[in-house]
Amino acid sequence: MSDVPGIRKTPDGVEIDLKVVPGARRDMIAGMLGTRFKVRVSSPPEGGRANQAMIRAVSEHLEVSAADIQLIRGRTTPLKTIHVRGLDADEARSRLT
User: Fold this and answer.
1) How many Cα atoms occupy the beta-carbon half-sphere of 90 within 13 Å?
2) Which domains does the chain have, with CATH numbers?
3) Please, are residues 41 and 27 in contact by the beta-carbon 8 Å criterion?
4) Selection from 18, 96, 37 nearest residue 63 by Cα
5) Which of 76, 71, 94 is nearest to 16 (CA)?
6) Tell me, what DSSP letter sits at residue 50?
7) Region class of 23: left (phi > 0), else alpha (psi between -120 and 50), else beta
8) Is 97 in contact with 90 (CB distance < 8 Å)?
9) What's the CA angle centered on 10, arms 7 and 92, to 5 degrees?
10) How far is CA 60 from the centre of its chain?
């Protein structure tokens, strides 16, 4: 696999860099924004609701359980990094693009 910006292999899965945009009409992966995958969510960024919506949207798109996704950086900012357990980088890339 050639290096894909925003996706890094880990021993048990992948790390994915995201830009989360709250207040959208619907939850969706909206392509790339620089080296990050843009995720639009309808939830507001209060009380962690946007983070929860982002995890649900990404889990559906990647076809993995939300329990296999962990927010590892960016809890209070729009620039986030998640860890997805049990998914390889090639599969993540093909499901996100």
Assistant:
1) 2
2) 7-96 (3.30.1200.10)
3) yes
4) 96
5) 71
6) H
7) left
8) no
9) 40
10) 10
Please report the pLDDT score of residue 1 as a whole number: 44
How far apart are alpha carbons 69 and 43 in whole angstroms? 18
Q: What does pTM read for this prediction?
A: 0.93
Q: What is the pLDDT of residue 97?
A: 81
Q: Report the pLDDT value the prediction gives residue 5, as an integer from 0 to 100.
A: 85
- Position 3 scores a pLDDT of 66
User: For residue 8, what are its two tokens?
Assistant: 């890094």
CA distances from 21 to 35, 39, 43 (A): 15, 6, 9
Angle at 86 between CA 57 and CA 96, to 5 degrees: 40
Amino acid at 36: R
5: how many CB neighbours lie within 10 A of its CB?
Answer: 11
What is the mean pLDDT of each successive set of 10 residues along the chain, which is 97 residues long?
Answer: 79 97 94 95 94 96 97 97 96 91
Both tokens of 1, joined, read: 């696999």
